[in-house]
Each structure stands twice: as structure tokens, then as C-alpha cells.
Amino acid sequence: MFYTFLRGLVRFLLFIFNGKAQYHHTERIPDKSENYILVAPHRMVLDPVYLAFATRPKQFIFMAKKELFKNPFFAWWIKKCGAFPVDRENPGREVIQYPVKMLKKSDKSLIMFPTGSRHSSELKGGVTIIAKMAKVRIVPAVYQGPLSMKGIFKREKVQLNFGEPIDISDIKKANAEGIEEVNRRLESAFAQLDKEIDPNYKYIAE
Known about the structure:
Elements: H1 2-18, E1 22-24, E2 36-39, H2 47-54, E3 59-65, H3 72-80, E4 83-86, H4 94-105, E5 108-112, H5 126-134, E6 137-144, H6 149-153, E7 159-162, H7 176-197
Parallel strand pairs: 1-7, 2-5, 2-6, 3-4, 3-5
Antiparallel strand pairs: 6-7
């Protein structure tokens, strides 16, 4: 209930500051009864928020770097929004075990950014491992819009596009070969989704 309230509150504030975001192909998003991993390139600090808006009433958990939990109030806020801390330098088993448990035993799905950072384009293997262990599909998405809060306040247009769910049940193991194949599918999906919004779009990190 509180998650829904916070999502609605933030959605209202962003509407006031930036106007209505445009969401493309939301019909490709699975029914709310299905758990899945929603995956996108990380381009802006608010892209997980916009992803959560577009897929409501589905609720999500998402990884956040541990540094964001230093401030007690902010830590409380983002935990209520579904965040759990990750040590990027020394990630433990919990980074995999917790989301797998939630995907299997709760009604919450997972938002992941496979590059891990807004300043990287290299896809990592966590998505493949978690998807295989939890036996869920992967839904690709892309964000195009302002890359800073300054752009949000200038009311620069925000757009998101969603792809068809990717079934990786044919991937036998989440080994190097399996991860490489899943990453290839994701990169292809991201490129196609960006092209559907704007054929000339090119992401340049700020």
C-alpha cells in the first residue's frame, strides 16, 4: 500500500515539473500476475521511477548502490520504493539470492540495469543468472529523454519504449556462453527499441 502511495506521489510531482511522459508499446508488458525482470540501459537517475510508472500496478524491487543508503531518511524512502543495497566492489550472494527469492515467492518483479552504471555500455551477467534461477522472462525497455534533473525541470520530453518479453529457457546454463547469448539478445532489443522511438538517437552520458 505504501509503495503504491509513494509511486503515485512521485508520479504527481514529476507530472507537475515535467508533464506527461510518453510510453510506447505497453501492450508488450506481461500481465501483472507474471513476475519478470524489467531490463533497460541506465541513462538517468529517474529511469527506474519512470519504468515503475509505466508498468503499474505491478510492483518492483531494484538494486541500488550501497552509498545511497548512508542518509537514514533517503535510505528509508528508497527501501519503501523497493530498493535493496548492493556493494559494487564486493557483491555477495545476497545480490543474487534476494531477487531470486522475491521473483519466486512474492508478487514483485525486478528492475535491473545490466550495465550497472550510466557511464558504461558493457552488459554484465547478473540478469542471465537471476532469470535462469528464478525461471522468469526478461522484458527489455529503453528510456529517451533528459539525462539530468535540469532537463526534467526544463520539461524536456520523456519517452519509454517496451519490447517483447525474452524467453531464455533455451539457454542451458548461465555460463560465459549463455551470458554472451542473452546479452546479444538484449543489445539487439535495446537497439531496436531506440530506433522505434528515434532512428537517429544516440546516448551520450553526461
